Amino acid sequence: MNAEIVGIIGLSLAVLSFYAGRMSDKRKETKEDDAVDTNLKVSDAQLRTDIGYIKESLGRIEGQFGKDIARLDGRMEELSKQLIPLSGLANKAYESSKMVHNRLNEHLRQDHDKKVIDYPDSMGEEPFP
């Protein structure tokens, strides 16, 4: 009979310790779930703050980009206006050097009886006759 009582007490203690452990695990899970929920709430708030900051930063970048484009467009127009007179001067210099080259070739042909080869211009014109 003592053995039966010891067995029943042992079995009862085993069942009680199993349920106690299970209840303890449930409390731990509940605490962990609460902690995870709190972290998610903090994370959501942090994400919202970060997204707001990113939107503000993009707005500033877009504004600065627009200003830079406007400034560069103005600079391009200014450079284009400066290049027009320079291209006219370059064309005049080219024509002048072409005339000097022709005169030099004529001088060598007529006065020194040199055979001169006329090369085509770099501008794509045909060779001199």
Mean pLDDT across the residues is 80
Quick one: how many beta strands?
A: 0
> How much β-strand is present in the residues?
under 5%
**Element-by-element helix/strand order:** H
Low-confidence stretches: none
- Major beta sheet summary: none
Net shape:
rod-shaped
How many angstroms does the end-to-end distance come to?
A: 139 Å
Structural class: mainly alpha
Q: What's the alpha carbon Rg, rounded to whole Å? A: 47 Å
Oligomer: single chain
Helix coverage percent of residues?
Answer: over 70%
- The total count of helices amounts to 1
Characterise this structure.
The chain is mostly helical and 129 residues long. The protein is 86% helix and 0% strand. It has one helix at residues 2-112. The longest helix is centred in the middle third of the chain and has 111 residues, at 2-112. The chain is rod-shaped, with a radius of gyration of 47 Å. The model has no long low-confidence stretch (mean pLDDT 80).
Key words describing this protein structure:
129 residues; mainly alpha; 86% helix; rod-shaped
What's the gist of this structure?
The protein is mainly α. The protein has one helix at residues 2-112.
Annotate the secondary structure layout.
Elements: H1 2-112
